[in-house]
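TL;DR need structure tokens for one chain.
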Amino acid sequence: MIWVLAALFNVVFVIFFALYTTASEWAVDRSEATGAFDPSQLLPHDGALWLSGHAALVLLVVLDVVGVALLLRSRRKHLIAAR
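>> reply
TL;DR here they are.
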């Protein structure tokens, strides 16, 4: 059950990250659409959103690696105990 929740969390976060990236790109394009650069068209707190989004993505990858490592360790211990 925990792996289903982890997979669901991965999917939801990746979708959020893709939507944020798309919104950020559209905001930059919209701000540059007029002849002059209009900073009011950008996303508010874009730097903080970028940093938190990328930090969360890195943590998600780390958690996935740790989860897989724990699963492999558990299975290895189970196989050794069965012998």
